[in-house]
Amino acid sequence: MTEPAKVIVVGAGPVGLTAALLLGTKGIPVVLLEAEPVLACDLRASTFHSPTLDMMAPYGITARMLEVGLICPSWQVRLHPSGERAVFDLSVLKGETDHPYRLQCEQSRYCQFVGAEIEKLANVSVHFAAPVVDLMQTADTVSVKASTADGDRTFTADYVIGADGARSAVRHSLGIEMSGDIYPETTILATTTFPFHERLEGLSNVSYCWKPDGTFSLLRLPGVWRVSLYARDGQTTEQALEDEAQQSLLHDIVPDAGRIEIQETRPYRIHRRLASAYRMGRVLLAGDAAHLNSPSGGMGMNGGIHDAFNVCEKLIAVIQQGADPRVLDAYERQRRPIAEEEIIQQAHRNRTRMQERDPGRRREMLVELQRTTTDPGKLKAYLLKSSMIEGLRRAAAVE
To answer: What does the pLDDT look like over 110-140, one tens digit per residue?
Structure first.
């Protein structure tokens, strides 16, 4: 880079990479710091909502994702094994978005595509294996100390975006607290090539399912299904992760399947947390560094990418257009309530619904969801919300 950085982005996940791309394509000098030696490729998010696809289309990212991903024209809530279901047809969003569907594509592919575009930008400097160990700011600058193979190195810029995930070193350095809790259950995410769509009639590419003694979900990607499983009552996570136990849980879905080959398995706990502040001086938080939620509904990663667009729009105005730095305060006013009231709460409602065990209550919920799917007005309103379009419009209306 031929000039000092204007912005340091910490974290090369989908949020940090998006921020670096947005700023870099505007010619703003950026330093991107990532603690890991390479981009993450483990099992993470896979659902991209309509507005995210709209946002990334001008950068060529959406086109590349459509080449390798799987379009999901509908999603459903389903009773198993009866197959009764409420199917949410996303085509009703035509006219509201250029992409009236969900796209199933691994988060790692998104990161690869965005990373490839960043590599073309001479004004963006990327440093892997450079975990942040300290942060200091003055009235005019922010300095970030990173631990590299060559020893500690300090980077200085006008602003910092902390997009370094749930254990954010940037957030910790600022002393910003994350309030909330952890859900009691552990999700076991497993991938398999077993063709569930050939065995379960009318299955959508994204299906949230009740079974008699619990719940599971099925998310399809090209050539593979991602199955979210949960330990049985009285069973520990360690016991549920054993091969025989996983086979038993999978046979709850298709009893006569024989052995179902599992490619990968990842257990994870689900958090519901929100940062007490999104901005402190010249430092701003985005994505999981600012909010954590249940993955039910696929809103976490998308919400983080939407954070990146919002904060970068304001940084571009300040850095290149001479806007008053106080416009950065609007970032928290616009995005934090959406995280709290739309993303976290909606994901919580989705999770709570699927954890319901009472058969009578499940039946009531399913009937109500079916009524929604058969009423065009209600369906569109529901999908504008669950697809995150309404939340973005609500944020845009806040000054």
So the answer is: 999 999 999 999 999 999 999 999 999 999 9
- The tokens for 218 are 């099925």
What are the residue ranges of helices labelled H in the chain?
14-24, 50-56, 61-68, 107-119, 169-174, 196-199, 237-240, 243-251, 300-321, 329-338, 345-355, 359-373, 376-386, 389-396
Residues paired with 179 in a beta bridge: 274
- Give the model's confidence band at 3: pLDDT under 50 very low, under 70 low, under 90 confident, else very high: low
283-285 and 159-162 beta bridge pairing: parallel
| Three state DSSP letters for 288-328 | HHCEECCCCCCCHHHHHHHHHHHHHHHHHHHHHHCCCHHHH
Can you give the pLDDT at residue 176?
A: 97
CA–CA dist 155, 135 (Å, integer): 10
Could you give the CA distance from residue 50 to residue 46 in angstroms, rounded to a whole number? 13
pLDDT tens digits, one per residue of 169-206: 999 999 999 999 888 889 999 999 999 999 999 999 99
Q: pLDDT band at 2, cuts 50/70/90?
A: very low
CATH number 3.50.50.60 given to 7-72+100-179+271-355 = yes
Domain map (residue ranges) of the chain: 7-72+100-179+271-355
DSSP state of 388: T
